[in-house]
Design a protein that fits this description.
- This protein has 15 helices and seven strands.
- By secondary structure, the protein is an alpha/beta fold.
- The chain has a five-stranded mixed beta sheet. Strands 4-5 form a two-stranded antiparallel ribbon.
- Strand 2 and strand 3 form a beta hairpin.
- It is globular, with a radius of gyration of 26 Å.
């Protein structure tokens, strides 16, 4: 029996051939002939509307963005193949963020390997954050804070306001062996984005990475924003009289009832109190606080990655959230159409998680 088994093994070894392997799969070798970048991109350049729908930004903004991280995205050609250009790398990354499609879908569309797409998205996001963070989310000076407060008074009719604060749950796939760490009150798994937003829906401060089980107030109390507000190291202007009065009041940030009441943080009075003055204050505060809800709405509509469950490990999700926030500010800063076309009524009914 043993001799028969050995003979059969020898026969099988001689008849079964090993699978053929490729250094580059034939499908990916057609990248320059059939890949979306080499076929569709040239057509999109002739139509501004279609370009905007595909990349979620104008051609001018795309070109400006390309010039910023381009030197860091450049790779050298090899004897075997030509390197993927910085523009194509940026296109792959933006398309992933704009649609939320899987890496596999992007892989087949652009005729790139699955692992290649994964690496391109990861590297490009990191480079965008490293190169643009200091430009679009700078350290605030006293004059910059005063300009923000002036905008809140002119646009939202709320004086001495430095920003609106709120949190957003970004739904993710449950990380392995995480238990209930990322499980939130909405019965989903999430990572929390805590943001301070100015009167024009630009991010001033962002805190990314808190687990979904945490409350907004708890995240704020452990954040660097709260520590610097307590320590007085944020270059906050001196107290100023409220418009039309002699009442001197401090500059504050505003939040909903989830946040604690502080000298530097205002929250609404209890609702249904029957006090007319309380109701007027709550109305004015709620109106000014809408800009943070609107900012989350714009972010979600522009980058559709937020409209599904992100299937990545938490560290990668943090990187993608940070990148979209940086791009949000970059696009609004460098595209006048983004600001002018902003319509409050269109976002009034947007469904957002607190």
């Amino acid at each position: 029996m043993a001799l028969i088994a050995i003979a059969l093994d020898d026969e099988e070894a001689t008849t079964v051939k090993s699978k053929r392997r490729f250094s580059v799969h034939p499908t990916w070798q057609k990248r320059e002939q059939e890949g979306k970048y080499h076929t569709l991109y040239k057509e999109l350049l002739d139509d501004e509307t279609q370009f905007y729908m595909y990349f979620r930004m104008t051609k001018e903004c795309f070109a400006l963005l390309e010039n910023k991280p381009s030197p860091h995205l450049h790779k050298k050609d090899t004897f075997m193949k030509r390197a993927i250009t910085p523009r194509e790398r940026l296109a792959v990354c933006l398309r992933f963020l704009a649609t939320g499609d899987s890496h596999m879908t992007i892989s087949f569309s652009y005729r790139l390997g699955h692992s290649t797409v994964n690496k391109i998205v990861k590297e490009t996001c990191k480079i965008i954050v490293d190169q643009l963070m200091s430009e679009v989310l700078p350290e605030m000076t006293t004059e910059m804070w005063k300009a923000v407060a002036e905008d809140f008074w002119l646009l939202w009719n709320f004086p001495n306001c430095l920003g609106a604060l709120d949190g957003k749950h970004v739904v993710i796939e449950a990380p392995p062996k995480s238990g209930s760490l990322f499980f939130n009150y909405k019965s989903t798994f999430s990572i929390v984005l805590l943001a301070l937003v100015d009167a024009k829906c630009n991010f001033i401060y962002i805190n990314v990475g808190a687990q979904g089980k945490n409350h907004d107030a708890g995240i704020f109390m452990t954040s660097s924003l709260r520590q610097r507000l307590e320590n007085g190291t944020l270059n906050i202007p001196q107290n100023r009289a409220l418009p039309g009065t002699n009442i001197v009041a401090p500059y504050v940030i505003i939040g909903d009832s989830a946040f604690p009441l502080k000298i530097y943080l205002l929250r609404p009075y209890p609702y249904n109190s029957g006090n007319r003055e309380f109701e007027v204050f709550n109305y004015r505060l709620g109106l000014a606080r809408r800009c943070v809800e609107n900012a989350f709405g714009i972010l979600t509509q522009k980058f559709r990655i937020y409209q599904g469950r992100i299937k990545m490990n938490p560290a990668s999700v943090d990187n993608k959230i940070l990148t979209t926030c940086v791009l949000h500010n970059f696009i609004r800063k460098n595209s006048e159409n983004e600001v002018n076309s902003f319509n409050l009524e269109s976002l009034e009914d947007s469904s957002l998680n607190n």
